[in-house]
Amino acid sequence: MTIAKPTREQLAWQDMELGVLIHYCMEIYRPELKGDWYKTDRVREAIAPGTIRPEKLEPAQWVRSAAELGAKYAVLVTNHCTGFSLWDTKVNDFSSAHLDWRGGGGDICREFIEACRSYGLKPGFYYSTGCNGYYNINDNWKWDYRSPVYQDYVKKVEEQVTELWTEYGELFEIWFDGGIIPPEQGGPDLTPLLNRYQPRAVCFQGPRDYPHNIRWVGNENGLAPENCWAATFAGEARYDGTVPDEKAGVGDPDGKYYWPAECDMPNRTHAAFGGGWAWKAGEEHLLYTPEQLLDCYVRSVGRNCNLLMGMAISTDGDFQDEEQFRTFGKLIRDTFGTPLASADHPEPESGRFVLTLPEVQRIRYVSVREDITEGQRIRGFRILADGRPVYESQCVGHRRIVPFADLTAREIAFEITEETGGARLRDMAVYR
Prior knowledge:
Number of strands: 18
Number of helices: 9
Radius of gyration: 22 Å
CATH topology of the largest domain: TIM Barrel
Oligomer: single chain
Shape: globular
Helix content: 10-25%
Order of helices and strands: HEHHEHEHEHEEEHEEHEHEEEEEEEE
Strand order of the largest sheet: 1-2-3-4-5-6-9-10
Mean pLDDT: 95
Strand content: 15-25%
Low-confidence stretches: none
Distance between the termini: 40 Å
CATH architecture of the largest domain: Alpha-Beta Barrel
Number of domains: 2
CATH class of the largest domain: Alpha Beta
C-alpha cells in the first residue's frame, strides 16, 4: 500500500492551525448595486479609485488584530473579483496606487508584508485567476478559454502574479479562489512561475502538479467532516469554493495526493453583505460570537484542518471587529492553554496511551496528535474513560479534538483500533 506523505512545507502549514483571510474589496463602496456587477467591466465606472479615500487604512492594524486572535499566518486578498489590485501593479491603473491614500502611489501589499514581519505572522497572497471585472472576465459566464480575448487576459494574470511573487519576498501561502484552469485547457501556466519564484509556498487549490497543495474543505462555514483525511484522490478536480461539496472535505485515507484541508469562514455570518466576507455598516449584530467561533475551531482545527478566519475590512480601511478577534483569541487560550494532563510522544501501555489525573475531574476536551511525517497511519481509534469506551472514530491526523458534554474521569486512554502500520502519537492532552 502506498501512503501519501506530506512535504516539509505542508507539515509546517499544518502546525500553524489558525490563520486569517483579509478582505478589503472594492464592492463595499457600492453596496446599493445588486447582482454580480462587480464581476463585469461596470467596475471601471462604478469604482473610480481616485474618489476612494480610506482614512483609517493601516495594514498594521489588520495584522495586529490577527496576532491578538492568535493567528500564525495571514493571507491578503490582493485581487478579488473586481480586478482591483492592492499593489502598484504595472499591468493597469486599477490599483491602490491610484487611491486617495498615502498621497497616491500607496502599496497595501508592501505595508501588509512589513506588518507581518513586525508581528511575527507568515504572509500569504490571494489572487483570483478566474474572475476579473476590470477585464470583463466573469467566472459565471461560459468561456472559450482559447479565444484571443481570454488568452490576452491569461497573459495579464501571469504578469500580475509574477509581480506578486517577485516583489515581496517569500510567501507562506498562495490562495487560488476556485482553483486554476489548467494550461492545457487554456488557463494560465503557473506551475513554472511557482517553482521559479515561490517554490516553498503552500498553495490553496494550486496546480495539480505543484507539490505543496492544500484543498478546500467543502464549505465556507469553518466546519470539517468528522473524519477529514489529509489525503485525497480529488487532486484531479477543482472546486469553486462556493457550492458545498462534502466529498471534497472528507478526502480519502488511501488517496494518492497529500492535500490537507483548509476551513475558510467569514467573521460575519452569511446573512451579512457579501456572504459575510465583505463589510457593510450596521451589520455588527451579524458577527459570530466567540462561543460560536470556538465551536468552529474545535470542528476544524480539531478535525485535521486549519481554520482560516475572514476579516471584513471597512470602507474607512480599518478592521472594526477587533473585539471579536480579541475575545475569541482569549477564549482559545483559556480553553486550550493549560491542559489537566499531557504527554509528548507517549508510548503505549498494553496497547493504550494513558493519561492519569491526580483525582477524578470533569473533562471537556481530549486532544490527540498523530505523528504524520510518514503520512496518516491511524485508521480507527477509541477513547476510554476509566476503562469504559466513551468515543470511537477513524481519523486523527495532525490533530483531533474530541469534545465531551458531561464526562468525569481520572484516567483517559487512547486506543488505536486500526492502522496501516507504524502509527505513532505526537502528543496527547486533556482539558477542563
